[in-house]
Design a protein that fits this description.
The protein has about 110 residues and is mainly alpha-helical. About 75% of the residues lie in helices and about 0% in strands.
Length: about 110
């Protein structure tokens, strides 16, 4: 494995940062509108509803981006289709089995 980033990795990092900034901005904007909404201002209520719809859309984008981020992390770790090979554990298991076979068969002698 190399330390080079896949072509889409820099784009994904930028996308994650954009989603984070947008969600922060929308949340702050909603907090500013809260007093007007609580007073029952119809225009503020309408704007808040639009803002909530936008927050829902951005939340969906954030979840999709997070899923892509997790998929990328799994690829980096060597996980494919939900499975990862633990080569160290495989070597240890095979080594133990070979050692048992050697003991059983007289240290590598071929049985007659």
């Amino acid at each position: 494995m190399t330390d080079e980033q896949p072509p889409d990795e820099a784009g994904l990092d930028a996308e994650i940062e954009q989603v984070r900034r947008t969600m922060t901005y929308l949340t702050e904007l909603l907090a500013l509108m809260e007093d007007e909404v609580m007073e029952g201002d119809p225009a503020a209520i309408k704007e808040a509803a639009k803002l909530l719809a936008e927050i829902r859309n951005w939340s969906k984008l954030a979840m999709e981006t997070e899923a892509r981020f997790e998929e990328r992390a799994k690829r980096k770790e060597g996980v494919a289709q939900g499975y990862a090979l633990d080569l160290e554990a495989a070597r240890a298991t095979i080594g133990c089995r070979l050692a048992r076979l050697r003991r059983c068969c007289g240290a590598g002698e071929v049985p007659e």
